[in-house]
C-alpha cells in the first residue's frame, strides 16, 4: 500500500513524536512518502532527534519538501538531508495524493 504523510509540524513539537510512532508502524510493510510542508520543512535539516529516521535511505521511503516553504524559512538545499527531494508547486502534491496514494495521514 502507498501511504503519504503530510508533515506540517517541526521535530520539536509533541505531535511530531506521534507522527514518528505511526510512521514506524507502517514503514516496514508499505511504501511511504513524506511531504514536508509549512513548518514541517524543518525536519529536512539534520540535527534534531529524528534525523536518522528521516535520513534513512530505504527503498520504501521517499521524502519531499515544498520549495516555497524552504525559501520562506531560509533553508538552503545545501543544509538539508541529502535524501530529501524538492517540489515546486502544490499541484505535484495533489496529483501524487490523488493518483498514487492509498492512504493519507496529516500531522
TrEMBL record:
<dbReference type="GO" id="GO:0002143">
    <property type="term" value="P:tRNA wobble position uridine thiolation"/>
</dbReference>
<dbReference type="InterPro" id="IPR027396">
    <property type="entry name" value="DsrEFH-like"/>
</dbReference>
<dbReference type="Pfam" id="PF04077">
    <property type="entry name" value="DsrH"/>
</dbReference>
<dbReference type="GO" id="GO:0005737">
    <property type="term" value="C:cytoplasm"/>
</dbReference>
<protein>
    <submittedName>
        <fullName>Sulfurtransferase complex subunit TusB</fullName>
    </submittedName>
</protein>
<dbReference type="InterPro" id="IPR007215">
    <property type="entry name" value="Sulphur_relay_TusB/DsrH"/>
</dbReference>
